[in-house]
Amino acid sequence: MSTETTDAPAKGDMSLIEHLKELRNRLLRAAVAIVIGAVVGWIFYEKIFSFLTVPYCDVVEAKRQTCALTSFDPLEPFGFRAQVAGYSGIFIALPVIFYQLWRFIAPGLYRKEKAYAATFVALSTTLFVSGAAVAYLTLPKALEFLLTIGGEGIDNLTNVTKYTTLVLFTMAAFGVGFEFPILLIALQFVGVVQPSTLSKWRREAIVGITALAAIITPSVDPISMFALAIPLYVFYEASILAGRLIVRRREKARLS
């Protein structure tokens, strides 16, 4: 008899009600982590706001203009600060969110599987943060394109809420996009897709990745689109290599 234990029931032994209860518990824990992170974001709002406005200020100050964002609604600053705090909460709570996701999709997490949880959380968080960082570093060029595409005769009065929404959405979109290799590796791990199949789909993948990057990039500018599409295709190729390693290990395990 196996002596391995787990603090969660195996998914195959759970009823639909138990699945729903577990999902509720995971969502509640993730929500609590986001709320705590949002409180931290509210407290450190000034520093976060200053960080978010750096790309915009770099662009307008290069044109010898004053870096100032506008607000025409007395209620807007409060809603804007709440928005910044909310997004900050999600970013801060990422490890908890990914861990709760893993605990829900993993089949019970026995002792030998817990190492996969740590790897999943670390890799998912690193990729999301990396994607957000790429978006942030790309923003100055993207903003320069957007602010000059209309010509010299336009005086840009940038609204504070619309600007930060653009920045935060772009960072979030890149972060989610950078989770792409985890999805492909997972599909190969469970046998849904084979590395050989992904190799044959390279041309289709290029078209699909480019279209996906164009869809999920909030600014719709070509600079951001290609800044997302190029890493995604690199991840596609890396996922194929990872899939081949998975297949080789399975073959060795089967023959041994």
Automatic annotation (TrEMBL):
It is found in: Cell membrane; Membrane. It comes from the Bacteria. One of its GO terms (molecular function) is proton motive force dependent protein transmembrane transporter activity. The keyword Cell division does not apply. Keywords: Cell membrane, Membrane, Protein transport, Translocation, Transmembrane, Transmembrane helix, Transport. The chain crosses the membrane at residues 27-45, 84-102, 114-137, 166-193, 205-220, 226-247. It holds the Pfam family TatC. One of its GO terms (cellular component) is TAT protein transport complex. GO terms for biological process: intracellular protein transmembrane transport; protein transport by the Tat complex. InterPro entries: TatC. It is a multi-pass membrane protein. The Tat system comprises two distinct complexes: a TatABC complex, containing multiple copies of TatA, TatB and TatC subunits, and a separate TatA complex, containing only TatA subunits. Substrates initially bind to the TatABC complex, which probably triggers association of the separate TatA complex to form the active translocon. HAMAP family: TatC. Belongs to the TatC family. Part of the twin-arginine translocation (Tat) system that transports large folded proteins containing a characteristic twin-arginine motif in their signal peptide across membranes. Together with TatB, TatC is part of a receptor directly interacting with Tat signal peptides. This is Sec-independent protein translocase protein TatC.
